[in-house]
Amino acid sequence: MKTIMPLGDRVLVKPLGAGEDKKNKAGIIIPDTIGKEKPERGKVVAVGEGRWNEDGDGLVPMRVKVGQTVIFSKYSPDEIKIEGEEYFILKEESILAVIK
């Protein structure tokens, strides 16, 4: 397997629940395309080293860590495929929350 290391303040995320249709209580299937404007969830696979501070003399450390489950805005990530698997690369500022 290839190793991907995000640069700067970017995060590599494996989407959770992508491509799954859901059923409501009445048994009606709701396609995945309906909820495209809702935040997405994913598991952090890799993180960059952080971003440089405004003075350019030090790195601001990343707050998210590998293995955490996060919620992020649907329109913020860049989608990539690696060996047939879908991943997202997004800036740390696009992460809305960490699920504990």
CATH topology: 10 Kd Chaperonin, Protein Cpn10, Chain O
Q: How many helices does DSSP assign?
A: 0
Mean pLDDT: 83
CATH superfamily: GroES chaperonin
The CATH architecture designation is Roll
Please outline the helices and strands.
Layout: E1 10-15, E2 22-23, E3 29-30, E4 40-47, E5 51-52, E6 59-60, E7 69-72, E8 78-82, E9 85-91, E10 95-99
Antiparallel strand pairs: 1-4, 1-9, 2-3, 4-7, 5-6, 7-10, 8-9
Description:
- This protein is mostly beta strands.
- It has a single domain (10-18, 38-99), classed as GroES chaperonin (10 Kd Chaperonin, Protein Cpn10, Chain O, Roll), CATH 2.30.33.
- It contains no helices and 10 strands.
- The protein has strands at 10-15, 22-23, 29-30, 40-47, 51-52, 59-60, 69-72, 78-82, 85-91, 95-99.
- The strands form 3 sheets. Strands 8-9-1-4-7-10 form a 6-stranded antiparallel beta sheet, with no helix packed on it.
- The chain is elongated, with a radius of gyration of 16 Å.
- The two termini are 28 Å apart.
- The model has no long low-confidence stretch (mean pLDDT 83).
